[in-house]
Automatic annotation (TrEMBL):
Keywords: Apoptosis, Hydrolase, Protease, Thiol protease, Zymogen
Record domain Caspase family p10: where: 228-321
Protein name: Caspase 7, apoptosis-related cysteine peptidase
Recorded family membership: Belongs to the peptidase C14A family.
The organism's place on the tree of life at top rank: Eukaryota
Short name of one Pfam family: Peptidase_C14
GO molecular function annotations of the record: cysteine-type endopeptidase activity
Caspase family p20 domain span: 82-206
Organism: Astyanax mexicanus
Keyword Transmembrane helix: no
Lineage: Eukaryota, Metazoa, Chordata, Craniata, Vertebrata
Amino acid sequence: MGDFGNLLLQITWDFYGPVIRPSVGGLHVCVCAECVERVKEIRIQYFYFLIVSKKNKDGKLRDKDHYRIVSPAFQYKMSHRRVGKCIIINNKNFDEKTGMNVRNGTDRDAGELFKCFKNLGFDVFVYNDQTCAKMERLLKEVSEEDHSDSSCFACILLSHGEEGMIYGTDGAMPIKSMTSLFRGDMCKSLVGKPKLFFIQACRGSEFDDGIQTDSGPPNDTIETDANPRHKIPVEADFLFAYSTVPGYYSWRNPGRGSWFVQALCNVLNEFGKQLEIMQILTRVNYMVATNFESWSEDPRFSEKKQIPCVVSMLTKELYFN
């Protein structure tokens, strides 16, 4: 019968197996209340299913490990007229009173992100050097728009930062004051839809010294971003992808851009329309953790590492295809 047939048999057994009972002369399907409820429960998972397979170069189907059963009931609907809006706030230059340096390399980040999210189908808009008031006003206006024909929303913040804070060109403000504008009780047209925030900024002043493994990583010159109808929860369906963990620096190369954005764009360009968002960000974590290490003539800033951090309140799987 082959792997495909065996897979269908397994699904059939999962569907009916729990309610099949032996009887004289064979089997019968039990229709007691308990079993009927069990069928309803399983039906939610398997009634609609999609088997995705890929072919090898010789045209033959790959083995069973490459079959993927997808249940639409547990996936975000991405079939709206538009994928959605992507806002990129790119802060490079800061008022002298803030004590923040110019963020060299951030324009490279913004450019790569623009192309990357455009390729995923987003309507991308870039805003450079925004004050705190302008950032909040911009996102408030976006949150008040009608997103009914959009599948999701994305916002990318490129700036200096501290834990829980992001810098406008004139000072720092709480990240939550911007993200909360998109809560379910504030932005009704995005209720039940994924709201993605990617934040390239420091979250403190600690360095990650790393720990030796079996293989040595490549070097990178340094710069940092710091000084730095049924009810659902209003905080549901958010995802925050931070460039680093709480308390730590976030590294940036003046020529190539930040480590996190380099890795994010690399993975999205290659797998953005194939993998689920958490798979994508796990690969980003791996790439940042293994492919980057700081180098400096000052030993205090040399041989440092970084690991991104994902905080997810998503309630379904998210595929951009």
